[in-house]
Design a protein that fits this description.
Keywords: Glycoprotein, Membrane, Transmembrane, Transmembrane helix. The protein contains 4 helices and 5 strands, in the order H-E-E-E-E-H-H-E-H. It is α+β, with helices and mostly antiparallel strands and about 160 residues long. The chain has a 5-stranded antiparallel β-sheet with strand order 4-3-2-1-5.
């Protein structure tokens, strides 16, 4: 049981770190141009130097929603980690980690909404560049989506022994 708890804890910490990286770094979409590699993220467009992300007025709300949901997912993931540690030491034997699991599933839902909005609205933004593709931050966000769901379900079924 201790090994299972330690494994869940390590995966949860890895998920928090990957959420930070995927939200902060500006490599959600990558393309090539005559001047080199161009990458865009949730905050900046980088082509040698980084400038603010040029967004049309119709896409501005979608970008802000994506930013907000990714930040909320980080917050909920950190809160769930703190709740797990608190419940680990205060929860009675035989009880389940319901609060931690519920918070982690809210994190999962925030990641789903944020990445889905980005996928629907911003995947085609780099069509004018050669070979546009998703960057590692986009992939990390989807990996965090999977991990947060698995961790949330494990917290719900896990009993303190």
């Amino acid at each position: 049981m201790l090994v299972l708890l330690a494994g869940i804890f390590v995966v949860h910490i890895a998920t928090v770190i990957m959420l930070f990286v995927s939200t902060i770094a500006n490599v959600w979409m990558v393309g090539s141009s005559t001047t080199g590699t161009i990458s865009s993220g949730l905050w900046l467009l980088c082509n040698g130097t980084c400038d603010t992300l040029p967004v049309s007025s119709s896409d501005e709300a979608a970008l802000k929603a994506t930013q907000a949901f990714m930040i909320l997912s980080i917050i909920f993931s950190v809160v769930a980690l703190a709740m797990f540690i608190v419940q680990l030491f205060t929860l009675e034997k035989g009880k389940r980690f319901y609060i931690t699991g519920a918070i982690m599933l809210v994190c999962w839902m925030c990641i789903l909404i944020g990445v889905s909005i980005y996928t629907a609205r911003f995947t085609d933004t780099m069509r004018e560049f050669e070979r546009p593709h998703h960057g590692y931050c986009f992939i990390l966000a989807w990996i965090c989506f999977c991990f947060s769901f698995i961790i949330g379900i494990l917290y719900l079924v896990l009993r303190k022994k």
